[in-house]
Amino acid sequence: MVRALTELLAKRNAYAEHDGERFLDAEQNARLIASAERYYRIMYYGSRAAWNLRDSHMFETLKNLLAFYGPDSKAVIWAHNSHIGNAEATEMAARGEHNLGQLCRKAFGAQAYLVGFGTDNGTVAAASEWDGPMEVKAVRPALPDSYERLCHATGLARFMLGLRGREELCGPAGLGKVRLERAIGVIYRPETERASHYFEASLPQQFDEYVWFDSTRAVTPLETAMIEGLPDTYPFGV
Predict the structure, then answer these.
(1) Complete domains list, the chain, with CATH
(2) Residue 170: CB partners within 8 Å, gap ≥ 6?
(3) Is the pLDDT of residue 125 over 50?
(4) Contact 123, 137 (CB under 8 A)
(5) d(Cα 115, Cα 105) in Å, to the nearest integer?
(6) Residue 47 in contact with residue 95, Cβ under 8 Å?
(7) Nearest-angstrom CA–CA distance, 39 and 33
(8) Does the structure show a pLDDT above 90 at 230?
(9) Which of 13, 67, 117, 173 has its CA 20 to 30 A from that of 140?
């Protein structure tokens, strides 16, 4: 795959001129498979390098798309807070981990606008173990000394909080004080929530804007239906 990717890139101009977005698809698929091979090899040893490789791949994909669509192109990236927020403002940095938001901040400066989301309670669709079934779980109210508890204390059901350039709000006496922050992803283990889902962070350095929903509801899958006559492996069994 590395050799195939190298050959693709060597003929980039000729292919792109003729095939346009089809070449972009082929290039990205080759990059994905090459990165995936390295990712799963690293993950076997449980190294933090697996996380860094994954977010670096996201960032390289973003740069490739921006380059393809030209100097005036823009992108909106939807990802978990742990990928979008600047890792340098969290304890991830102490573990030697970086993420997409940090790489975007370094590469694009103020042109990158990082938006995070938070909640206090409600329900979430998550599993208890990796490869486990999806469950609808009750989200526990936020812990004391957390940003989520602070937002909940406002009594507002929802709000958007701009953090960029708000020194009176974001200084060390305000939101700039390091606090706990919650991260719920594919896995949610409420019985070990403090250890499993909370970390220390500085919210104003992590995000440019914070969107708050005091109570949230679990996402519900869209209804799907098989088109009559298609093979069971569609669209993969070509």
Answers:
(1) 113-218 (3.40.1660.10)
(2) 163, 176, 203, 204
(3) yes
(4) yes
(5) 12
(6) no
(7) 10
(8) no
(9) 173
